[in-house]
Amino acid sequence: MPSPERHATLCSRNAHKARELEQLMPGWTIEPLEADGWPEETGATYVENARAKALFGREVLGGGHTLLGEDSGLEVDALGGRPGIGSARYAPEGAPAIAKLLGELSRVHDRTARYVCELVCLTPDGAEVRGSGTLAGRIADEPKGSEGFGYDPVFVPDGEERTVAELGDGWKERNSHRARAARALLAALGAALLLAGCGGANPVKGRVLRAFFNGGPVVRELGQRFPHKPGTRPCVLHDRRVTLQATCATDISLVNPARAVVTLTEAWNHGAQAHTWFFFIRRDGTVQSVIQEGAPAPKPSR
Length: 302
Description:
Layout lengths: L6 E4 L4 H10 L4 E4 L13 H16 L5 E10 L10 H4 L4 H10 L7 E11 L5 E12 L15 E3 L6 H4 L1 H7 L1 H17 L9 H11 L3 H6 L8 E9 L2 E13 L4 E10 L4 E10 L4 E8 L4 E2 L2
Parallel strand pairs: 1-2, 1-3
Antiparallel strand pairs: 3-4, 4-5, 5-6, 7-8, 7-12, 8-9, 9-10, 10-11
Helix pairs in contact: 6-7
């Protein structure tokens, strides 16, 4: 059974989104909410709709749960930002929605667009934490590719020549609007949720973290202020000659028998600001990739 701290309910009927979020939040179990009587999406913004979904989940399940509300959409400049927050109601998902979109853009030269995602997390103690993500691009002339879902077969991200459906689920896991929102959410959660289960003895996690902190110069420098086991400790940062009392926290998720994710979070201004490094590593400590989210990291004290 997953620990309560690493279990969340996505207040959505879209099983695709629950599976995708579980991939984007290593070590977490994300389950969709099974319920009837879902409220209409009447919010004026993605955040309002996401919050309403999370609050509906609290009505269904009661307190003491980690609840995720998500709202996302495709904004097309030539259509005045439509379908936008009405993307889910624009047309039936898949081929019908794509056909309608391409029909509206027939003979339209400006095909710039963006995916937008907002995540709202209600923690067991009632706090609200948010994460936002966007992915800019353009609408292709015709659908291509077989992976992903929604408008992925016709969405070409900036800097790419292929659609998200052609680029594949691996690319999407690293770069999608939902991936960016999930990383921003994890960074914002900081010590509030990300570290809720830290500190327990786990010999495998300890061995992987030791190998990780014995790695390259960047990791060794971070290791001077971050604990070498799951947990937190105070640290001092400097921002424009101002001394900041901060908390440096380490967490690790064992994703599968070969991989792990090490999360290092600096939080300051009483947790109002945070910077997070996500290191995707092999179990021998080798760093495969790293992503940073949150406020710019101040300089550590020397």
